[in-house]
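Before the break, one more example. Copy the sequence into your notebook; we will annotate it together after we see the structure.
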Amino acid sequence: MAERAIFSPYDQHIVGSVPISVREDAEKAIIRAQLAFEKTRRLPSHEKHRILRAIESGIAERREEFARGITDESGKPIRDARAEVDRAMLVFSLAADEARRQGGDLLPLDMNPASNGRIGLTKRFPIGLIAGITPTNFPLNLVAHKLAPAIAAGCPLILKPAEKTPLTALRLSDVVAESGLPKGAFSVLTPESPAETGEIMATDHRFAALSFTGADKIGWELKAKANHKKVILELGGNAAVIIEPDADLAFSVARCAVGSFANAGQVCISIQRIFIHDTFFQEWADAFVTAVSKLKTGDPHEETTDVGPMITESACQKALENIQIALQGGAKALLAGERLSPTLLTPTILTDTQPSMSVCADEAFAPIVVIERYHNFEEALRRVNESRFGLQAGIFTKSIGKIFQAFDVIEAGGIIGNDIPQYRVDNMPYGGVKDSGFGREGVRYAIEEMTELRLLALNLTAPEGS
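Here is what the structure looks like once it is written out:
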């Protein structure tokens, strides 16, 4: 079988290779998954729990191997890669618990005299084959967020990982193979033409659902082709933060420095827009520039690196072009990004931007953040909502009333009070509105997406033998 090389985004050395999947491989995977579904749909909860715990343990035994592999193929700094591995282990742990927790409701149906002696029972059933497509930035944890709930639900999963970062998914498949999961219940496709495989996943009627995480344009195109298939889309955003004048300056600055530039800003809930009350805009901006200036950009394998490379040279070039367009349009650079190599870009902080500029309106997916001043809280809320995205947003304030006002007004899937929108714990319902997609991940919520609710209405007064 032909193979394709995988390159380090940091220095372009070959970090591994993967077999090139063809259409026939996809067909074989689908047939295997159909056969596996007859087993997975009947797995008892204790067996699903055991399998998920075995995968968690398998990852733990190879924790450093997984972390270094993530750094090799994605360029994520090694400290963050280890944190990703730990999060993936938590996802499988949560799914193991949920596998034993799934239940239903007992409903009284005797709402009128004609229904005397009747009760209703509800139970969730697996919907069938799941197609999963994952991006480059979390090559383990975002795979876990599709695989773990699929196992807990009783659904086989066929995965197409990102073209640039498939090695981690294949490493995970080795762990899964040792867990006792029925053969065919998890397959990884690494095609030469990702678009063709994505279209198969969207259009083939044998898939009951498509779970896609990635670029918004591609996600909506696949949804348009999916016909009656269930589709779950997590499509990123341009997350905003509000800094109220009563916020703790040092804490909010430190958290925003992390939330803006972790993984070189290549996170769908990376901070892209910060709105600061004008009474202390200059003080906060100065402190932020100082904090960000101390971040180390460089080799992601070094323990002290904060900002690693962007995933491709073209992504880095696009970021530079968007910065230049903003500057030509009147924006001011409080901290100018410097290109240290074809993929290494130091952090950029802009102000005096316009909402229509790409650095504000689109998903930058780069080490770029915009900071602007506002005059009152209602204005800040309105400006946060001036976006076609709505994934997560953050607010720093001591006023619980304003936090709940933000919760009521901001159009996003999650509002983070007194922390950054990049905050995520893996049991949270996670997903967005508007162009950020729909449906929710977070283990329990993903299980609901991968199962369907059925009702049994039972007549207890029927004559025996009827």
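The chain has two domains: 3-235+436-455, 239-417. The first helix runs from residue 23 to 40. Try to locate both features in your own notes.
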